[in-house]
Amino acid sequence: SLPIVAIVGRPNVGKSTIFNRLAGERIAIVEDQPGITRDRIYSKSEWNGREFHLIDTGGLEMGVQDEILDHIKNQAELAIEEADVILFVTDGRAGMTATDEEVAHLLHRSRKPVVVAVNKIDDLKHEDSLYEFYQLGFEYVIGMSSVHGSGTGDVLDVLVSQF
Length: 163
Ligand code: GDP
Ligand code: MG
Description:
Elements: E1 4-8, H1 15-22, E2 25-28, E3 31-33, E4 36-38, E5 41-47, E6 50-56, H2 67-82, E7 85-91, H3 98-110, E8 114-119, E9 140-143, H4 152-161
Parallel strand pairs: 1-6, 1-7, 7-8, 8-9
Antiparallel strand pairs: 2-5, 3-4, 5-6
The protein binds guanosine-5'-diphosphate and magnesium ion (MG).
Guanosine-5'-diphosphate binds next to helix 1.
GO molecular function: GTP binding; ribosome binding
Organism: Polycladospora coralii
Family: Belongs to the TRAFAC class TrmE-Era-EngA-EngB-Septin-like GTPase superfamily. EngA (Der) GTPase family.
């Protein structure tokens, strides 16, 4: 079976925009199991001849009690469990947040390879905001703009190097 890349991160950082940019064909949306609705969105993608599955998730909003947000969090945690590599998306305009740090903690515990994408670096004046994200403790921190498409090739190079 193909390697699985899960896209995780707090809401509104651009996960779905990245997913749509990287997605090839969409292969499955819903897969029911007893007690669990796996309503994550999957696609099949390919980079440099290497095929993989990509999963989009709702945002990981930590420490919430709300039922819908709990559900979103569960979906993201399931995706992390399933994944071979995690694409951890953050927002370079907003800068690092406490939620990013909580998500990072969860990802360190998973012991899966993690690539940090600092998204929304649309122009040079935002490039320096990249560096604070090294504090999250992961080796790969890559700036990108899912709106312009810049940096996506670098992100994909590192992702497939982790399979
Ligand atoms: P998600 O909640 O993490 O899935 O985020 P979305 O993909 O829904 O994007 C949230 C918002 O950020 C939308 O308004 C996007 O258009 C915007 N967005 C996504 N990527 C970029 C980017 O690279 N640059 C800028 N400026 N905005 C972006
Ligand atoms: Mg989304």
